[in-house]
Design a protein that fits this description.
Four Helix Bundle (Hemerythrin (Met), subunit A)
C-alpha cells in the first residue's frame, strides 16, 4: 500500500504540474518502500538524492509559470520552496554523515510537507495559471 496516495484533492488543475506532483509522490513512496525493506545506505541515498533533484526541477517549473503570469504570491511561494530545499539538503548531508537514518519521522515530514504545500499553497495559483492558458 502506498505511503502517500495521489488523489483529485491534490490536483492543481495544471496537467504538467499535476504530473510532477505525482512523480514526487512516487519518489516518496519509493523511498518509503526502500526504508521498510531495509535497503542499504547506498540505495536509500540514491533515492533521496533523486527526490531532492526532482523537487528542485519541479519548483523551478512552478516559479517559471508564476513569473510568466505575474502571480502575486511568487515571493512567498519561492521562500517556501527555498526553505524546503534547504531542509532536504541538510537531511541529505546528515544522512551521508551517518547522523540521520531514513525513519518514519522523516517520511512523515516529507509526506506532510508535500501534501500540505500542494493543498494549501499550490492550489492558490490554479486560477491564475488557468486564466493565463496554463492548463
Amino acid at each position: 500500500m502506498a505511503f502517500l496516495k495521489w488523489s483529485e484533492s491534490l490536483s492543481v488543475h495544471v496537467t504538467e504540474i499535476d504530473e510532477q506532483h505525482q512523480k514526487l509522490i512516487q519518489l516518496i513512496n519509493t523511498l518509503h518502500d526502500a526504508m521498510l525493506e531495509k535497503k542499504g545506505k547506498e540505495v536509500l541515498g540514491k533515492i533521496l538524492d533523486e527526490l531532492a533533484a526532482y523537487t528542485v526541477y519541479h519548483f523551478s517549473t512552478e516559479e517559471k509559470y508564476m513569473e510568466q503570469c505575474g502571480y502575486p504570491g511568487l515571493a512567498f511561494h519561492k521562500k517556501e520552496h527555498d526553505t524546503f530545499v534547504g531542509k532536504v539538503e541538510s537531511l541529505i548531508q546528515d544522512y551521508q554523515a551517518n547522523k540521520l537514518g531514513i525513519t518514519i519521522e522523516l517520511m512523515t515530514f516529507l509526506k506532510d510537507w508535500v501534501s500540505n504545500h500542494i493543498q494549501i499553497t499550490d492550489k492558490k495559483y490554479s486560477d491564475t495559471f488557468n486564466k493565463n492558458g496554463i492548463i
